[in-house]
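Take a careful look at the sequence and tokenised backbone pasted below. I need to know what the token row says about the fold.
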Amino acid sequence: MTAQNDLDISGTCLAFPFAELAAEMAQGELSGSIRLSNKDKKVIVYFRDGRLAFAVSNSRMTRLFDFVLQQKKLTKEQLVQLPSFSNDLQLAEQLLADGLLSESEKEMFFSAQVRAIVQDALSWSEGEWTITPLARVREGLHAEIDERAMLKEYGRSVSADVAATRFRTFDETFTLTVALTAIRDCSANEARVLVPLASAPQTVADIVAHTGFEGNEAFSALYSLWLGGLVVRSGWQSAIPAAKIPFLRAAKLELKREAIMPGIAPEEKPVEDDKETAADEPITLEAYLKRTESAKNFYEVLGVDPKCDGDALKDSYFALAKLFHPDKFRKEAPELTKRVHSAFAQLASAHEALRTPDSRELYDFKIRKDLEAANGASSTPGTPQETDQKLRQAIEEFEKGSQLLAKGDAAAAQVHLARAAHADPQNARYRAYYGSALSADDKHRHKAEGELQAAIKIDGSSAEYRMMLSHFFIKVKLLKRAEGELTRLLALYPNHREAREMLDSLK
């Protein structure tokens, strides 16, 4: 059960307010719960595939008992005659059985109750929270509320100056999630921001240049659009580390029912899944690493037939992720640890590319096009032979650059590392070391951060790259951002001694 506890993510409402957590759950299509506490107040909000499903609270003002009285559906005398119940679901079932409440009225009351709880949680500026993917609301329990509209209204209520503080860089990228013609509810500023997004994803800097907005106005419009689910946000410092999202989605467990605190409905709690792998015999670590390193496509990474169904893909991914998570190999030799991290990044990429029918179809189309290009253009620029030569040159340049960087000659290292990063831009290590070399010169601080962030975006599971970014933030005196990055690193690797000591020294 230790592995399951590692999936929990905790933080404060000051660093990440509930509205942003709910938006991240939606963007990641995650299931589970967000547990919030502020002094004696406690709230649990449940999500199912990114949608807000239910919410409960220990506040008397949000109990079903009080809702029924407020709506004058029943009198106090009638409620006093009812037996005592440990939670609102039991009370609702008794009211239904006694004919005091109809099914539609029960749903209406529960929806109003959940809406009030969520509105209250949105107002919290203090308190702590924990995201727990392994605590699910029981099947069949769902409140009909438009949480996206609530989140968007919350975003609009935040001042432009406050909204600007929720962004750390103009390099964040936003992508429109729906057709522009399908959007009905947007302000004038939001509409101006949506126009450039209709043609292609845009950075904040692009949007500011296109709209002519002052920075804060653009941030304010983007913040409400993102909370409302109309745009997807990428390249930012999130509460839920990108590297953890595949594992949060992979929490495919047998469930049992367990009652919790008074006034709160029964939830479903996890029991560890004993399924090991999709194959008859568990694969060894060495065989898994060799297969991943030699794989020509994502199907080979997962060890499945390209014609297999979606369930087989999921089962293979979940089993491999459980067996070979990098956390299990932290104490091994550095070279083995490096191979495990690299293999896991490949595994996560394979899962993401093949997770849905649409993404799988797009990936299959890309494979066919690449194969056609390789077969039909063997002597033209961009052939496999030319690509191999380019990658070999990138390796040589990286070795030269990393040696110079180790000797303290960052200026000379920049030249070689820039060539390596340019030749192989999807290599996280090249981008991270190039960013580290650039950070030695204050004139290149923005470009340095961009390269380090790019490395983390490519390989979010690397503790090394996150430490490099944390050192950079400390160097340029962005201490709050360093704290945030170290906190995210420790969420991935709770026993990382250097990160813990650095975070303690900052605090």
